[in-house]
Write a structure and sequence with these properties.
- The chain is of the alpha+beta class.
- 56% of the residues lie in helices and 23% in strands.
- The strands form 3 sheets. The protein has a 4-stranded antiparallel β-sheet, with no helix packed on it. It has a 4-stranded antiparallel β-sheet with strand order 7-4-9-10, with no helix packed on it. Strands 5-6 form a two-stranded antiparallel ribbon.
- A hairpin with a 5-residue loop joins strand 1 and strand 2.
């Protein structure tokens, strides 16, 4: 081979080498630029992640501090706050794991905003509950004061009622005493107003065929009894209608009576006993001595023997006598 050919061949080889070297340099230059860009982006992402981590820690602990400050003496609210703190911690740990992977910073920012809203919502909820508790506490105090007032009023009313009952008992006792006294006085007045009778006479009578009546001494001849008596004056008794109850007791101690002839029962005010009477004589009393008469016609034979006659006025025995039928 000639020297010119060898020279040209070397030149060609050198040209190829130069071209290859230039290509390699271009490739390295481009690759280096891309790596720098990637490094820059990675560095920027790392900076943003660190910033987000710091911001997350700050936001989390501020929320914890705010919730902790809202604790008080209410055990139920304190338990709710602890529960909310645990939920915030769980949310914060979840975001921290995403930051460790350094992925999707946009999603992380949204979750941090959600965490902030959640923490603010917890604080607002606790604040509302505390206000409601304060209102309830105030209402409880008011009701307690009202209850005390009612209790005091009830005690006063109870004492007042007791005093009234005591006064009523005293008045009732006094009323009963007065009533008893009035009864006694009324009894005395009634007894004093009873009209005394005198000159009591009883005759056995029989009506003749001519219509005239004649007195008889023998029981078998007597058709009826004629009872007369004098009603005496009484200054405490006003004039007016008066009833005189005639009681005829036969020889065996029985009161002559017949319901269809006006017999009945009266109360003896001197002893409270019930007394059967034979007949009542109703008369206009003028408060002057006056003879009153009445007949007893039983339409049955009379027994022989001694008879007692009693006359009552206003429930008191005011006169009596005896007579004999042979």
């Amino acid at each position: 081979m000639t020297s010119d050919s060898s020279k040209q061949r070397l030149i060609a080889i050198a040209a190829v080498v130069i071209v290859l070297l230039l290509g390699a340099n271009v490739f390295l230059l481009i690759n280096n630029s891309k790596q720098k860009a990637d490094n820059t982006e990675l560095s920027a992402n790392l900076d943003n992640a660190e910033k987000l981590k710091v911001e997350l820690e700050k936001q989390y602990y501020e929320s914890l501090s705010e919730l902790e400050e809202m604790k008080g003496s209410n055990e139920e609210l304190n338990a709710l706050i602890d529960e909310q703190k645990m939920e915030l911690e769980e949310q914060k740990n979840q975001i921290s794991r995403l930051l460790a992977d350094n992925k999707n910073l946009g999603s992380i920012r949204r979750q941090m905003k959600d965490l902030k809203r959640q923490a603010d919502g917890y604080v607002a909820e606790i604040q509302q509950l505390k206000e409601e508790n304060e209102e309830l506490r105030g209402e409880t105090v008011r009701l307690a004061a009202q209850s005390d007032s009612l209790s005091n009023d009830l005690a006063y009313r109870t004492q007042e009622n007791q005093e009234l009952n005591n006064a009523k008992a005293v008045l009732t006792s006094e009323k009963e005493a007065l009533s008893m006294e009035n009864d006694k006085l009324s009894t005395k007045v009634t007894a004093a107003s009873a009209i005394r009778v005198e000159n009591i006479s009883v005759e056995g009578m029989k009506t003749r065929s001519n219509g005239n009546a004649t007195d008889k001494k023998r029981a078998k001849n007597v058709e009826y009894l004629k009872i007369c008596f004098d009603a005496m004056p009484n200054r405490v008794t006003a004039p007016g209608m008066e009833n005189f109850y005639v009681r005829i007791i036969n020889p065996v101690g029985e009161t002559l009576s017949a319901e269809e002839l006006g017999s009945g029962v009266l109360r003896d005010n001197s002893n409270g006993e019930q007394v059967r009477f034979t007949k009542v004589k109703e008369a206009e009393y003028s408060n002057a001595q006056e003879q009153l008469c009445t007949n007893w016609t039983p339409n049955i034979p009379f027994a022989a023997g001694k008879y007692d006659v009693q006359i009552y006025n206003k429930g008191y025995l005011t006169g009596s006598t005896t007579f004999i039928l042979k």
